[in-house]
Design a protein that fits this description.
This protein has one domain: Mog1/PsbP, alpha/beta/alpha sandwich (Protein Transport Mog1p, Chain A). The chain has three helices and ten strands. The strands form two sheets. It has a seven-stranded antiparallel sheet with strand order 3-4-5-9-8-7-6, with helices on both faces. A three-stranded mixed sheet has the order 2-1-10. It starts with a helix and ends in a 5-residue tail after the last strand. By secondary structure, the chain is α+β, with helices and mostly antiparallel strands.
Length: 186
């Protein structure tokens, strides 16, 4: 009887593992220049060139890298502010204010990654639309924003948001071995 119970338990455990979605492998990415940084993200990363609208300095060229995995959207936005480096603090404040607009703030803190200062923010989206965490930094004339957003039906307490946002690094030695290089310009 015990043997049958154990076999039933093992069979149920195997079935549970078979129907549980596999966790996507996390991959490291880095950029050597014109701004050096690295981060980790699950799933396939796609990129697109876009423009970023700043009330302070107008439209700026930007690149957005995006991945969606397990109902979480991971986005890295890199904005070129060459020639405006003296506005670093103001540009971080502006990006943070735009991110917080019409949101319920869960956490909003000053942050430091390596020798760079920025903000880390978590918000609940309007109309119970999910939760989003973001890291906003300025480095070498570039605004870099990592944002993880739980999509409707996803887990608002997903550890993946924090893992992604906290993976940002500006020290080249922190990029994992086997990291893939990103191109910010053609």
């Amino acid at each position: 009887m015990r043997l049958i119970n154990r076999m039933n338990f093992l069979g149920a455990a195997a079935l549970a593992l078979a129907i549980t979605p596999a966790e996507a492998a996390w991959q490291s990415y880095f950029s050597k220049g014109p701004v050096g940084f690295s981060f980790d993200v699950p799933g396939e990363l796609k990129s697109e060139k876009t423009t970023y609208n700043s009330a302070m300095v107008g439209q700026r060229d930007a690149v957005v890298f995006k991945s969606v995995e397990d109902n979480v959207e991971f986005t890295v936005t890199v904005v070129n502010f060459t020639g405006r480096a003296s506005d670093e603090s103001g540009l971080i404040k502006e990006a943070t204010a735009a991110y917080l607009e019409k949101m319920t703030v869960v956490a909003d803190d000053d942050a430091r990654v390596d020798s760079s200062y920025g903000r880390k923010v978590t918000v609940d989206l309007p109309d119970t639309g999910g939760r989003s965490s973001s890291a906003i930094f300025f480095k070498d004339s570039y605004l870099i924003q990592l944002q993880a957003t739980v999509l409707p039906g996803g887990n608002n307490r997903s550890f993946q948001m924090g893992r992604f946002v906290d993976s940002l690094a500006f020290n080249a030695t922190r990029a994992d071995e086997g990291a893939i290089e990103l191109k910010l310009t053609d």
